[in-house]
Amino acid sequence: MHSDAVTQHEFVVRGNERAAEGIWRLVIESPVAGQLAPGQFMNLRVPGDGSHILGIPLSFKGANAQAQTVELLYAVVGEGTRRLSQMVAGQSSTLVGPCGRGWWLPEGEGRALLVAGGIGLPPVLAAARMLADAGIGFDAIAGSRTADMVLSDDIEDLARLAGADGRVITCTDDGTAGRRGFVTEAMGELLRERAYAQAYACGPNVMMAGVARLADEHGVACQVSMERMMGCGFGACSCCNVALVAGGYALCCTDGPVFDAREVAW
Amino acid sequence: MVSTVSMAVDLGGIRMRNPLNTASGTYGNGVQFEGFYDVGATLGAITCKGVAAVPWDGNPAPRLAELPGSAIMNSVGLQNPGVRGFVERYGDYLQGLRDRGCQVICQIAGHSLDEYRQATELFEELAPFASGFEVNISCPNIAQGGAAMGATPEAAAQVMSVVRPLTARPVVVKMAPHDVAEIGRALEASGADALSLINTIPGMAIDIRTRRSRLARATAGVSGPAIHAIAVRMVWECANAVTIPICGIGGVASGADAAEMILAGATAVSVGTANLYDPTCVPRILVELEEWACGQGVSDINELIGAFEC
Ligand SMILES: Cc1cc2nc3c(=O)[nH]c(=O)nc-3n(C[C@H](O)[C@H](O)[C@H](O)COP(=O)(O)OP(=O)(O)OC[C@H]3O[C@@H](n4cnc5c(N)ncnc54)[C@H](O)[C@@H]3O)c2cc1C
Ligand SMILES: Cc1cc2nc3c(=O)[nH]c(=O)nc-3n(C[C@H](O)[C@H](O)[C@H](O)COP(=O)(O)O)c2cc1C
Ligand code: FES
User: Fold this and answer.
1) Cα-to-centroid distance, A132 and ligand 3 (Å)
2) Where are the domains of chain B?
3) Fewer C-beta neighbours within 10 Å, C or N terminus of chain B?
4) Which of A55, A235, A248 sits opposite B277 (nearest CB)?
């Protein structure tokens, strides 16, 4: 047997509550907790209705190896996530993980810049913890469509991890909370004010493409956590292809989900 | 359960210790499942992803959609590293499976007769670990070749006339889900040792808001539990038309599904899409199949092949 291979774990729901409009916070207890690296993901099976067969790939916000717990945030967008939102504390199921290759520490010296769009926040929080643990300073921008969708508690966590000299900016597209406008506008300002060694981003594809372009213009290395429809999550089906600048495709689930933004053909 | 049933079967010269095989493209090349169970000790055979003479990129994203009612649709389009890349990456691992009693079936893909010839020649030379080959003449997701190569009895026989003289190892042919009796007969006559069916069923899924396909291509292949009944019917029709063994494929997710395939006339059974959403299913299906055979009061599972009564 290959010990580093992805495997299946049981999980028990410890908490599953609404965190913002259309967004839920899930806390599970699972042996996978001790194996997760920041930016990796897991593929959850929701028990019940057998007519919906694929798992739900989710990144995680944080994991506690000692308590064996993992905290996740997810948006209810379709049948699978709707049924996941109906799971109650004590219910159990299985997950596949830990999947993929997560974030890596900045290669050069200097601050990091974190950018999260909508439900891209959980892996960005995992990156924040990784940086804080390594003693690397960072600033962060978290964008949402509107005030109801802002994950205030999680943005507070982000601010705590960023420390006294870290700046954390909240924005909404419609200006109902924080600054009005897209994350890329706030990012442009920060890039003019401070020097960064590395950007980390997760959010809608158009947002990540914009972040990648801005970072590149300022000569800042950039990591992005990509999303694709996934059949398996562990390299068995080749369904999750990401086009590369060098030509051909990588697989999001094994080569990613975190990629060097300069390698991705946006 | 102490098994008294002999589970070994012979798929056209590929001697399998049990009837379970994997459907090409849904099982990586085996190594991806090592974290779930001991692949080499479990399967009767593994069928690898389709490989061509030279690397293919496959189709653009998105390549996958989930459909209501236990089905998915894919348009991967045979992304593969070419025979040389495949052998370099997986050769040692696959030899290891072979050494441990799991047969290794390498799948040959091509856009043209010439490409099938080149891929077969390369496999012959570079893949001593292959117990046999499966020729894919039924991929619905590539522009030329693919399914067209297996669309008529004449076209299917032509591919066999190219591949057959190049290898003495068993050759299985992967068939598209149409005209299986007629095309099956043509393949048997042109030297196929076994047939495997069905490949995915061409379908469409339209996003009614954007009026575009939910995948990057207009059409893609439907698979999963929803297609099982269609697959069983086609295995039965084909089994009634040929004398060579058949590997039944399509929506198998339980021992009962595999048992249906065997009753309909399949010698071996491949698990496909179920591996993706339930990666530990194979060992469970094997236990269930053995329990069923035991319950049928036979001493050899071969007694149940084609034992459907009508
Ligand atoms: C590596 C990875 C990490 C992810 N992390 C998170 C996370 O932390 N929190 C979160 O809320 N979501 C995350 N997602 C997205 C999440 O997996 C999907 O939203 C979910 O699977 C949708 O399932 P569903 O059955 O509810 O939706 P469906 O009914 O299947 O689809 C509803 C809509 O969502 C889209 N969709 C479905 N699956 C995916 C997918 N895998 N990626 C992108 N869009 C999809 C469909 O195209 C459709 O428009 C992640 C996806 C990946 C690949
Ligand atoms: C993601 C995916 C990739 C596939 N790739 C191949 C392939 O490379 N060659 C092939 O002959 N069939 C391929 N197939 C078809 C399967 O081998 C099988 O014939 C089909 O999916 C029906 O079985 P199932 O319902 O159990 O999945 C693929 C199917 C899926 C879902
Ligand atoms: S989701 Fe199956 S290979 Fe990535």
Assistant:
1) 31
2) 9-59+78-200+224-304
3) C
4) A55
Q: Is B139 a catalytic residue?
A: yes
Tell me the C-alpha distance between A56 and B277, whole Å: 10
Of all protein residues, the one whose alpha carbon is nearest to atom 3 of ligand 3 is: A235
Choose one of A28, A56, A144, A230 to mutate for the ligand 1 pocket test, by most ligand atoms within 8 angstroms of C-beta: A56
Name the token pair of B26: 């849904």
Cβ-contact A201, A214 below 8 angstroms:
no
Taking only Cα atoms into account, the Rg of chain B, rounded to an integer number of angstroms, comes to 18
Q: Read off the tokens for B249.
A: 């494929």
CA dist A92 → A9, A197, B227 (Å): 11, 42, 29
Could you give the strand order of the β-sheet that contains A196-202, starting from the edge strand earlier in sequence?
A179-180, A168-172, A138-144, A111-117, A196-202, A221-225, A258-260
- Answer yes or no: are the C-beta atoms of B73 and B131 closer than 8 Å: no
Residue corresponding to tokens 């591996």: B275
Closest by CA to B30, choosing from A250, A236, A241, A6, is: A236
The CA distance from B183 to A192, in Å, is 67
CB contact under 8 A, B70 and A229: no
Determine whether the interchain pair A238/B58 forms a contact, defined as Cβ–Cβ distance below 8 Å: yes
The B residues from 277 to 296 touching A (CB cutoff 8 Å) are 277-280
B275 touches chain A (CB under 8 A): yes
Cα B223 from Cα B140, distance rounded (Å): 12
Domains belonging to chain A, first-starting first, are 7-99 (2.40.30.10), 111-225 (3.40.50.80)
pLDDT reading at A116 higher than 80: yes
Q: State the DSSP H helix or E strand holding residue B105, giving kind and residue range, or none if neither.
A: strand B103-108
Nearest CA-CA partner of A94 in A4, A7, A29, A8: A8
ipTM value for the complex: 0.94
Architecture label for domain B9-59+78-200+224-304: Alpha-Beta Barrel (3.20)
Sign of CA dihedral A80, A85, A86, A91: positive
In this predicted model, which residue has the larger pLDDT, A128 or B2? A128
Average pLDDT of chain A, as a whole number? 95
Beta strands in A65-122 (DSSP E): 69-75, 92-99, 111-117
For residue B2, pLDDT over 70 is answered with no
Ligand nearest to the backbone CA of A231? 3
How far is the C-alpha of A33 from the C-alpha of A44, rounded, in Å? 14
**Peptide bond preceding A98: is omega within 30 degrees of 0, i.e. cis?**
yes
Q: What is the pLDDT of residues A124-153, one digit of tens each?
A: 999 999 999 999 999 999 999 999 999 999
Q: Looking at chain A from residue 207 to 246, which residues have their Cβ under 8 Å from any Cβ of chain B?
A: 228-232, 234-243
CB A21 within 8 A of CB A7: no
B33 C-alpha to center of ligand 3: Å? Answer: 13
* pLDDT confidence band for A56 (50 / 70 / 90): very high
